[in-house]
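agent> Task received from the user: take the single chain below, predict its 3D structure, and emit structure tokens. No templates, no multimer pairing.
agent> Plan: (1) validate residues, (2) run structure prediction, (3) serialize to tokens, (4) report one or two observations.
agent> Step 1 OK, no nonstandard residues flagged.
tool_call: predict_structure(input=
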Amino acid sequence: MKLNWHTLEKVGEVAWAKYSLRRCTQVGKRIRVAGQVQVHNRGRIVIGDKVTIRATHVPVELAAGSSAELIIGDRTYINAGVSIGASVSVRIGKDCAIGNYTLIMDNDFHSVENHKVSPEGRPVVIEDGVWLAARVTVLKGVTIGQGAVVAAGAVVTKDVAPRTLVGGVPARFIRSIDKAPETS
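)
tool_result: status=success, residues=184
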């Protein structure tokens, strides 16, 4: 194997990933991290194989509360400023792309009436191949179907059907997405 700057950079990102994600319950193979990741794990955080976290200018936050689970599938890409909080369960599928400053949480963390009371969380499921563009907010109890795309700045308050494009506040259906092209 020929050593060059690009190869050394990859090796450094893999080594940094092991250190940065040491508080996770389970970390897959060939994870890459560039920048800072803040891990707060009082439950279970599992990261699949070949996940990339690119947090070069703003840290990424991964948090699982007591008895909560946060699962990130293989080959998922997480960009800078992303914050994922699980009080019950957040599951992100394989081959997903999560844009800058996206917020994913399964709990409101306080009620409108009483800021000292934390309401019950509801699981969030993001299926395989989903793309969340920059500054998307995914709220509790939402399932985003396989291959869906959420436009930048959208607030997802309800389930998103597979292979659809949604956008806006709150996120609404824009159009269906054609079948993905065949790859060889």
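agent> Step 4: summary for the user.
The chain has one domain: 5-176.
agent> Done.
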